[in-house]
């Protein structure tokens, strides 16, 4: 009887490990999901996989590729056309406000009379 109770207690403790945060880090799964979304967006934007890698340095390439492949299969299956994505360079000079300097006229010097 005590042996069964001991096994039950150990089993309950092991089940509680996930509650203590001893399981896998959720940030890893989130980063992988974001990388897959980047790959899918690149495929939908008619970008090649190499361009996608170049634009997203530091992102897991395997996950980008997996997302790209999933989106490619989905688009082919549903006969969808992609949408050309264009990167517009920010026009810093054109959008920056131009500062206008207004100078007050200098008073004229009075003529000295002798």
Give the overall form.
elongated
Range of helix content = 40-55%
What class would the helix/strand composition place it in? mainly alpha
N-end to C-end Cα span: 127 Å
Rg calculated over all Cα atoms = 32 Å
Give the beta-strand count: 0
Q: Sketch the topology as an H/E string, one letter per element.
A: HHHHH
User: What do the pLDDT scores average to?
Assistant: 81
Our estimate of the beta-strand percent is under 5%
Low-confidence stretches are none
User: How many DSSP helices?
Assistant: 5
Give a quick account of the main beta sheet: strands, pairing sense, barrel closure: none
What structural keywords apply?
elongated; single chain; mainly alpha
Outline the secondary-structure elements.
Blueprint: H1 2-15, H2 26-44, H3 49-55, H4 61-77, H5 92-95
Helix pairs in contact: 2-4
Short description:
This protein is mainly alpha-helical. The protein contains five helices and no strands.
Would you write up a description of this structure?
The chain has 114 residues and is mainly alpha-helical. The chain has a domain at 25-82. It is built from five helices and no strands. The chain has helices at 2-15, 26-44, 49-55, 61-77, 92-95. α2 (26-44) crosses α4 (61-77). The longest helix is centred in the N-terminal third of the chain and has 19 residues, at 26-44. The protein is elongated and about 125 Å long.
